[in-house]
Amino acid sequence: MWELKAAYINEIYKISKKKKLMVASIFSFIAVVAAAIIVYSLNHLAGIRVTGSSEFSILVLSVLSYTLIPLFTAFVCIDMFSGEFTEQTIKLTLTRPVSRVKVFLAKILAVASFIMADLLFIMILSVISSFLINGTSFSILKILLSYILEFIPLFVFSLVVILICHITKGTTSAFMISVLVFLLFHGLGILFPYYKSFLFTSTFDWYKLFLGSYINVYKITRSFLILCGYSIMLFSLGYYLFDKKDI
Amino acid sequence: MDKAIVIENLSKTYKNNRGIQDINLEVDQGDIFGFLGPNGAGKTTAMKIMVGLMKPDKGDVKINGYSILNDYEHAMKEVGCIIENVVPYPYLTAFENMEICGRFYREVDRSRIDECLELVGLLKYKNERIKNYSLGMKQRLGIAMAILSNPKILILDEPLNGLDVEGMVEIRNLILRMSHEYKTTFFISSHLIHDIELTCNKIGILYNGKLLNVDSTDNILKSYSSLENYYLSEVDVNVGA
Hints:
Radius of gyration of chain A: 19 Å
Shape of chain A: globular
CATH architecture of chain B: 3-Layer(aba) Sandwich
Oligomer: heterodimer
Number of helices of chain B: 9
Number of helices of chain A: 10
Structural class of chain A: mainly alpha
CATH topology of chain B: Rossmann fold
Order of helices and strands of chain A: HHHHHHHHHH
Order of helices and strands of chain B: EEEHEEHEHHHEHEHEEHH
Mean pLDDT of chain B: 91
Strand content of chain B: 25-35%
Helix content of chain B: 25-40%
CATH class of chain B: Alpha Beta
Number of domains of chain A: 1
Radius of gyration of chain B: 18 Å
Structural class of chain B: alpha/beta
Helix content of chain A: over 70%
Number of strands of chain A: 0
Number of strands of chain B: 10
Distance between the termini of chain A: 25 Å
Mean pLDDT of chain A: 90
Largest interface: A-B, 27 and 32 residues
CATH superfamily of chain B: P-loop containing nucleotide triphosphate hydrolases
């Protein structure tokens, strides 16, 4: 456990020292503030009610979970895997008394922490903005539940990117293929709606299943099991390739 | 004598059919073993397998009795290494890079990091980002990282790469001092045959992926005027065969 903890702290430390973290925070901040200004203007100036207070945070989530959050998650994953292998900085970690399974696990945990921190940051910003737009009446539980649930499909997406990092050579190709896979899965979901539920991208808004007046337990269970299946398969395959990789 | 490193039937073949074949080698504790061979002989491949950066097709490496394949963490516990070029994180400072390495050892603290940076002459540059470092400074940092945990075994692939004459002498003296004071075992590859002659007490020659011969420097110098002559004669015999 000592080695895993050391490897995890190192990964978090490296993320924190990269400019991308600052850029991600600034972009998230700008996106939330811009959305708040637009919603406020429409509500108060044009008289068009776009969202209520609770809905604003969920509206922000529904937009950013398809755009900025997966984008910065992909950046972090690519830096952590493709970047380190291309630059060979990975040697610094892999020649220490820590097994590859622990290094891989530490990296996955660090990516998961990044996604959680990003979601938390956006949630706090959007809640503050909601408060400023529409006053005090909003359901924090509903918002919290949505953001917690959104972590799972984003985590699955990060595992997809990590797998792509192991298959491709170089950071640019990893990024391009990650974007293509993301778009392709969305496209397939539109073209073949009957099979949509098997694509991980269709679960990016699965938190909405919990928000309605009727809770569809069957659909929630199916989505959850599909996400679990994706996680297990992608983690296993990612680790297999990570372990086999010669440097 | 206890064996620090045991290499058994080690083989690795690349797609271009080059690599190493059936290498068997033992290094005693306290030895300074010099690994000689021309470019592409397979020195780095063997050393990468020794520290777990590569998986062999066949064979195993035991460090302090622990298999690198089956018990990696124990095998690497007392090992420091430089493999090929030193590549620290460019966006971090030297001190932060050392911290990254030091977290894997309970006994390493900030004073030990400073001590190692002082030993390689980088203490005054410890807060500078690596992207501003020269090749020689990176090499010095690599050596500081390798000795950080006070390891009993040091595996160094071309440790003098990029160093100026002063730096080479400093590192050579550091190797000799660590061997003398702490009985550290060294496994060093270098193309600088004169340095190997001055530093190592045991020499192995690798040629075309095969280990040609292993002998002590004293024995070699009894029969040959220099290590260079011995190396050339061993290679000639092999090419002739």
